[in-house]
Automatic annotation (TrEMBL):
Catalytic activities: (3S)-hydroxyhexadecanedioyl-CoA + NAD(+) = 3-oxohexadecanedioyl-CoA + NADH + H(+); a (3E)-enoyl-CoA = a 4-saturated (2E)-enoyl-CoA; (2S,3S)-3-hydroxy-2-methylbutanoyl-CoA = (2E)-2-methylbut-2-enoyl-CoA + H2O; a 4-saturated-(3S)-3-hydroxyacyl-CoA = a (3E)-enoyl-CoA + H2O
GO cellular component: peroxisome
Keywords: Fatty acid metabolism, Isomerase, Lipid metabolism, Lyase, Multifunctional enzyme, NAD, Oxidoreductase, Peroxisome
Pathway field: Lipid metabolism; fatty acid beta-oxidation
Name assigned to this protein: Peroxisomal bifunctional enzyme
Family of the protein in this entry: In the C-terminal section; belongs to the 3-hydroxyacyl-CoA dehydrogenase family.
BP GO terms, sorted: fatty acid beta-oxidation
GO function term, MF aspect, one: NAD+ binding
Oxidoreductase listed as a keyword: yes
SUPFAM superfamilies from the UniProt entry: 6-phosphogluconate dehydrogenase C-terminal domain-like, ClpP/crotonase, NAD(P)-binding Rossmann-fold domains
Residue ranges of the TM segments: none
Alphabetized CDD domains for the sequence: crotonase-like
Amino acid sequence: MVDYRKEGLVAIFEVNNPPVNSLSKNVRQGFVDGLSKATNDPEVKAVIIIGKGRTFIAGANIKDFGKPMEELMSSSPSLIDIGNMLEESEKPIICAIHGAGLGGGLELCLFSHYRLAVKSARVGFPEVNLGILPAAAGTQRLPRLVDITVAMDIISSGRHVAAPEALKYGILDQIVEGDLLKESIKFAHSVIGKPLEPRRLRNLACKSILYCISVIHQFCLKSVRNAADLSYEAGLMMENTYFKYLITGFQSFALRYSFFAERTARKWQLPSGANAANTKPLNVQTTGIIGAGTMGTGIAVSLLRAGYPVILVEQNQEFLDKGVDMIRNILKDGVSRRLMTEDRMKQCLKALKASVDLKHLANVDLVIEAVYENISLKQEIFKKLDYICKPSALLCSNTSSIDIDMNVYGKETSAETVATIMDFGKKIGKVSILVKSCHLFVANRMHGCFQTEAKFILEEGALPDEVDRILEDFGMPMGPFKVSDLAGIDISCRIQHEVAKQHDIELTLQTRFFRGERYSSLSNRLYELGRLGRKTGKGWYRYEKPGGKNAIPDNDIKDVIRIHCKELGIEQRQISTQEILERCLYSAINEGFKIIEEGVVDKPEDIDVIWWYGFGFPRYMGGPMFYASQTGLKKVYDRVCYYHKNFPYSSHWVPSDLLRRLSTAPNPVPITQWKTVLHSKL
Ligand SMILES: CCCCCCCCCCCCCC(=O)CC(=O)SCCNC(=O)CCNC(=O)[C@H](O)C(C)(C)COP(=O)(O)OP(=O)(O)OC[C@H]1O[C@@H](n2cnc3c(N)ncnc32)[C@H](O)[C@@H]1OP(=O)(O)O
Ligand SMILES: NC(=O)C1=CN([C@@H]2O[C@H](COP(=O)(O)OP(=O)(O)OC[C@H]3O[C@@H](n4cnc5c(N)ncnc54)[C@H](O)[C@@H]3O)[C@@H](O)[C@H]2O)C=CC1
C-alpha cells in the first residue's frame, strides 16, 4: 500500500510494502488514490514519493511475472498508467530515494519531475538479469535524460548505479545530506510554482545515436535505439511488444527462478530446527589465515577488501614473502582496473600482518586453514590451534576433497557457528551455501562425474575441442578440457595417485579399472609427456607459448588418444552431440539427486547456485537441477537408465532413487517441492 499524509503544502506518499516495496497491485492502486487526493486538495502544492523501511522501490513484484500473459497485461492500474498520471500532474512530483530504486522503481522516478537521493542509494535497471527489458517506458525515457551510450550501458548491464555516479549523469538532481524527508520537503518548497514542462521527459529529444549503432543487437538496445528513431508513442509500443516476447520465453523464466533460488539458498536450516531466522551470528572482527598459496592469498584479499584485519601465517619466511607479494599484486591490479583506490589499497595492506608463528593467532575471532590438501597436516594444525586460539574462535578449513566431519557442518558444529559463517560469507561479498560433509563435497562430487564422462567420451572417439565446443554452445563458459588445461593436468593426476596410494594401488597407463569403477588413464599419459596444460604451452590443446591463453586444437593429441586406445583395446566410434551433452550433464544431475537424497544439501536450489558460482553454469538455463526439471524428469531418468545399462562400471550411472520416484509421479512435481517426495510414499 501507499500511506498518504500531509506536511504543510506537501503531500507525502510513503510506499509501504515490506520487505522491498515492490510494485504489487495494492501499491499501484495506492498511487492512483494518493494522486487523486493530492490533485483535488488545493492546499497541496507538491508531492514527495518516499519508501518506508529499508529501501525506496525494488521494482515490479517479480512473482507477478509468472502469471498468464493476459492477466499480466490487463492488471490495472499499470505502471505506465501511473507514470502518465505522475508526469501530467500540475503539482511537482519529487522522488526521495534511499536503498534501491530499481526497475519499475526507477521508471516511476523517470515519470516524476525531480529525483533526490541519499549518497548510499543505488538506481538501475536490473531487468536483463530477469531476461526482460525495462518495459514501463524505461528504454524510452532514460535515453531522453542521459547520453544514449550511458543509457545503453545501464540497461544492458543491469548494474546498480551508485548515487554519486547517477548524479553525474543527470539521473539524480541532488544528493541529500542528513534526513532525506526533511531535506526533500525543503527542496519541494523551492520548486513549487516552477514550470514543469521542461521536467517532462517524454517531451525531450533523444541525444545522438551515431556512435553506438554497432552494439545494437539485443532487445534492450533495439528498444533504446527506437527512442532515437521513433516517436515516443511508437517506441513505447515496440517496448511493450519486446516485453511480451521476452517474458514468455524460457530464459526469463529461468532467470526469475534463479533470482528466487539465490535467496532461498541463503535460508539455511539444521535438523535441530536452528535456522537463518532464529540464530544470531557472532561478531567477527579479526581474522587469521594459515597457508599463503593460491587459496590463502585469494581469501586474504577478499577479507582485506571487506575491511577485516588479517594475520597470515606460513611455514617459512620465503613462502610468506611470496604470499604477501601475491596479495600486494592482486590489490595493485584492482587499483589499475579501477576496482579500488590507491588509498584503499594502502589501508588493506596496513591491515595485513604476516608471521611464521601460529601463536600470533591467539586472539583472532576466526581462522581459515588453507594449507596443502593433506589430512595429517591439516589435523596437526587444528590440534595446535586448539591450544593456541581463544575458546570462542571459529576454526575453518578450506579443503576441496577431504571428508572430515570437523571441516564443515557436522555433529560438532554449533548453529551459531553456521550462522556466523553464512553471515561472514555475505559480508565478504560471497554467496555461501550450507552443505554437509561428503566425499568431495557437492561441487567436486558432481563436477567429477561431468569431467570423468568427458574423458571417457574421448576414449570412445571424440576430440577435446569437439566436446568443449558442444558444452560451450550449451552455455558453459569453458569446456571441460580447457578448464583442465587451465587448472593444470598435473594437479588432478597427483590427487588420483595420492588416493590410489591410500588403497595400496599403483595407477599405470594400463589401468582401466580402479576400485571396481571404469578408469581413464588418458590424462596420466599427457602428464608423462609433460603436457600439463597452459603452463607448459601444451595439454589437451596447444598454446601460443607456455602460459598462453589461446587454446589451439592440436593434431598431436589425436595421436596420443589413438595410441592410448590401441594399447588398451578401446574401440572408437562416432559420438553424437546429444550423447556428449547427456553424458556430461545427466551424470552430474543424477549425482545431484543422490546428494539431495542423502541430505547433503537442503534443497535443489542450493545445487544450482553452486553451479553458477563454481563453474559458470549459465543462469539463463537456471542450473543443472532446474535444467533437469525443464527437460522432464522422466526423460532424464530413462536416459540415466540407458547409460547405466551401457556403462555398468561407472557408479555415477546407478539411477538415483529420488529421481526414479519423481519421474514416476502422476504430475510433474515442481522443483521447490522435490524435497517433500523424500518423505512421501511416492
Ligand atoms: C507492474 C507489473 C504489472 C503488470 C502490468 C503488465 C504491463 C507490462 C509492462 C510491465 C512493465 C513492468 C516493468 C517493471 O517494472 C520491471 C521490473 O521492475 S522487474 C524488477 C526489477 N527489480 C529487481 O530486479 C530488483 C530485485 N531485488 C534486488 O535486487 C534486491 O532484493 C534489493 C537490492 C532490492 C534488496 O537486496 P537485499 O536487501 O539483499 O534483500 P533481498 O534481495 O534478500 O530481498 C528481500 C526479499 O524481497 C524479495 N524481493 C526483492 N525484490 C523483489 C521484487 N522485485 N519482487 C518480488 N520480491 C522481491 C526477495 O525475494 C526477498 O524475499 P525472500 O522471501 O527472502 O525471497
Ligand atoms: N586451488 C584451488 O582451486 C582450490 C583449493 N582448495 C583447497 O585449499 C587448500 C589450499 O590449496 P592451494 O592454496 O591451492 O594450495 P597451495 O599449494 O597453493 O598453498 C598451500 C600453502 O600452504 C602452506 N603450508 C603448508 N604447510 C603449512 C604449515 N604447516 N603452516 C603454514 N603454511 C603451510 C604452503 O607453504 C603453501 O604456500 C587445499 O586444501 C586445497 O584442496 C579448495 C578449493 C579450490
